[in-house]
Amino acid sequence: MIDAHDKLVLYLEEECKDTYCYVVYDFTEREYFICGSRTTKYDEKYCPFNFYCKSKTTVLEYLQFIFDVAFCRLTYGLYNFYNIFEGVDCVDLDLLESKRNDTCEITVYVDTDFKKKKVYNLLKMLKEIRY
User: Fold this and answer.
1) H helix or E strand, kind and range, residue 21
2) What are the residue ranges spanned by the domains of the chain?
3) Is the distance from CB of 58 to CB of 119 less than 8 angstroms?
4) Which helix (H) or strand (E) holds 93?
5) Which residue in 117, 98, 126 sits closest to 23, CA to CA?
6) Which DSSP helix (H) or strand (E) runs through 19?
7) How far apart, in Å, are the Cα atoms of 59 and each of 63, 87, 104?
8) What is the rounded distance in angstroms from the CA atom of residue 50 to the CA atom of residue 100?
9) Does residue 74 contact residue 15 with C-beta atoms inside 8 Å?
10) Is 64 helix (H, G, I), strand (E, B) or coil?
11) What's the rounded Cα separation, in Å, for the pair 82 and 12?
12) For 52-84, b where at least 16 C-beta lie within 10 A, e where not — what string?
């Protein structure tokens, strides 16, 4: 078995930067973990949220609910977080925020529409691509 040190992480953010979140696939629990927050125009963070689910369809429904997909454009980012689980008890919003930077960026699409098929395919990558 390959020892997976790398981890694909999906980042989504509303154009207006009101809501943002990360999506990680947990191979041990076989479920998706979504965590994020909202911010004010003064960059004050609201209480973070966490959500776990087993299916890509449920992730899509949740993302459509938390983002204003009818009116707001999104930024999608795919990141490779190296050794994210090493030496930590749990993965949370603060950890993911501290890991996200240009050096681990695979690709980012700015100012784009929410497309179910695109997000579905990104979720599929999180689950199926192993290092």
Assistant:
1) strand 19-26
2) 6-128
3) no
4) helix 93-99
5) 126
6) strand 19-26
7) 6, 28, 23
8) 18
9) yes
10) helix
11) 19
12) eeeebeebbebbeebbbbeebebbbbbbbbeeb
Q: What would the pLDDT profile of 29-60 be if each residue is shown by its tens digit?
A: 899 999 999 887 777 778 899 999 999 999 99
The amino acid occupying position 69 is V
Query: Regarding predicted confidence, which is higher, 91 or 9?
Result: 9
CA-angle at 125, arms to 123 and 126, nearest 5°: 65
Residue whose entry in the numeric block shows the structure tokens 């199926």: 128
Helix (H, G, I), strand (E, B) or coil at 90: coil
If one compares 96 and 71, the residue with the highest pLDDT of the two is 96
Question: Which residue, 82, 86, 95, is CA-closest to 22?
Answer: 95
